[in-house]
């Protein structure tokens, strides 16, 4: 079998290489921004994509018969606006982990949560495009919220003196006003500097309302 070729002096990069290898980022760096830059879905959402794709194919006669039999359209007893929305019947399953993971349960459950514009796609290619856009926005908005929360929590801990010493010293030096709890952003010289904790953390902190920044305890700040 022929080996892939590449520029002289450089090893060829496989299309199945890991994201850090493709982007040249550090192995211990946060993987979510790397996946977003490559427009790749996290594993959890890639699984959802596969399930929903199979569901779409089953509804349009492009899947094996045993999958078609698991998909039951929802027909309400009264005329409702959801009649033409393409909803499916979600079966009642046992509380066991196996039942909740079954395709017969997950497929209609996830399908009913899709926007109508995605469910009503008239072709497979259109459905895949709209589905990936929907899942991409869903995945990285949730990840970004969690990342922002954890970043602000570290800033709060550092200002209260319960965070790592090097972080506490960093924000203590950049404190501008004890009254307004504002922090000075450090000078950055590269694009990567904008994502650094010392810059991004200060950026998020300065946008918080004073009532949150002045929380007396970590528990109150987190709530």
- Total strands: 2
Number of domains: 2
Task: Tell me the Rg in angstroms.
Answer: 24 Å
Distance between the amino and carboxyl termini: 59 Å
Percentage of residues assigned to helices? 40-55%
Largest sheet: 2 strands, antiparallel
* Helix/strand order: HHHHHHHHHEEHHH
Classify the oligomer.
Answer: single chain
Q: What percent strand? A: under 5%
Strand order of the largest sheet: 1-2
- Kindly report the average pLDDT value: 76
Shape: elongated
Task: Report the total helices.
Answer: 12
Helix/strand/pairing category: mainly alpha
Contiguous uncertain segments of 5+ residues: 10-17, 19-26
In short:
The chain has helices spanning 19-23, 31-38, 43-59, 65-68, 97-101, 103-112, 116-119, 124-159, 165-174, 197-206, 210-213, 218-222; strands spanning 175-177, 182-183. It has 223 residues and is an all-alpha fold. The protein has 2 domains: 43-137, no CATH class; 146-222, no CATH class.
Could you characterize the architecture of this molecule?
The chain is mainly alpha-helical. It is elongated, with a radius of gyration of 24 Å. Helix 3 (43-59) runs antiparallel to helix 8 (124-159) and helix 8 crosses helix 10 (197-206). The protein contains 12 helices and 2 strands, in the order H-H-H-H-H-H-H-H-H-E-E-H-H-H. 12% of the residues are buried. Strands 1-2 form a two-stranded antiparallel ribbon. The chain starts with 18 loop residues before the first helix and ends with a helix. A hairpin with a 4-residue loop joins strand 1 (175-177) and strand 2. The protein folds into 2 domains: 43-137, no CATH class; 146-222, no CATH class.
